[in-house]
Predict the 3D structure of the following.
Amino acid sequence: MPAANARSATPDGPPDGLPFPEGFLWGASTAAHQIEGNNVNSDWWQLEHSGDGTIAEPSLDAADSYHRWPQDMDLLAQLGFTDYRFSIEWARIEPAPGHFSRAELAHYRRMVDGALERGLRPMVTLHHFTLPRWFADRGGWTAEGAIDLWERYVRATAPVIGTGVRHVCTINEPNMIALADAIRRLGANPDDNQEPSATPLPDKATTDALIQAHHRARAAIHSLSADIEVGWSIANQVYQPLPGAESATAAHSHPREDVFIEAARDDDWIGVQSYTRTRIDKDGRPVPAPPEAERTLTGWEFYPQALGHALRHTADIVGAVPLIVTENGIATADDTRRIAYTTGALQEVTAALEDGLDVRGYLHWSALDNYEWGSYKPTFGLIAIDHDTFERTPRPSAAWLGGLARTGVLPRA
Ligand code: BGC
């Protein structure tokens, strides 16, 4: 079991490096569909086997974490982490409308207890992209009665989250969910695209529904226990204006990101998720990174400074709401680049702390190599997975980041 964050200080002075606050959340994140395997009752499984040509490979067994979560948690705790963010799977918990599986609720409760027994504080996400097939088939978030059904599910998770869980994330990246809905609808009706020159706007009806769903979930969870701190996690695209593109960038950002951040103004915390930046020109169009830019396995520009921008942008909108980095990481085959990237990102966190931002934690994406929504090729894991044997092998970056978690100090560069 790891000791709680112990400060490393020089014998007669402050710590030799950039210190993080006491109680800072040092963790790693995962999502059920991406690691559990055989999530057969979900809309994503259905998509993976629909033959529609958009999916390179199906998730199948993933990392078999549905069975191997004790090993994953053992590793994270031994490495020095204090927090673990994982999601619970609505498609398993409510396989048919109104039928809640006691066995699956007990499964996820064992995970919560298993984390606590190992000294890992669980952060539980209630919805990370995957829906029960029946919910998707009846029209998803914008169908009549969808928010009531969602609230019923949230209330049904009480045995999992009701005790021992401090942080609950209602919905992961609602802005990406609303964007995916827009892309799906435009695929069916291309003439409806009002912004052919830019990335599509998130679907407005889905945006409104998700904000309502989040607020309903927050109230429902607070009625379960006043001790649970509720938030949601936004995909921060780090929109940066090219010269003269300030107002075009603000207009681009609002429906794609800011409206979701604004909806967190009364939350207990907000999750900041950042990977790279997106530069915007005067016409409000994203501009690709220059050809000489270093790119990661997802094709994104290597730009760890994005996290500082994301934290400050979020704080500008939410004011005093505490910030938690719930995802940040890099898909790479070269683990030294993962350490370099994460060092840069953590320097941004310390700079934000020094400027008075209330940053409460850093949870790296991801604990394990996982199913990256259509492909296993982009490897984000601190821990490598052999997909034939399911053997777990922590990479040097895992020991390095777990070591920082133990000391709570980022050595000066
Ligand atoms: C998502 C994760 C995903 C990661 C890297 C985030 O958008 O929450 O599920 O794997 O980014 O693409």
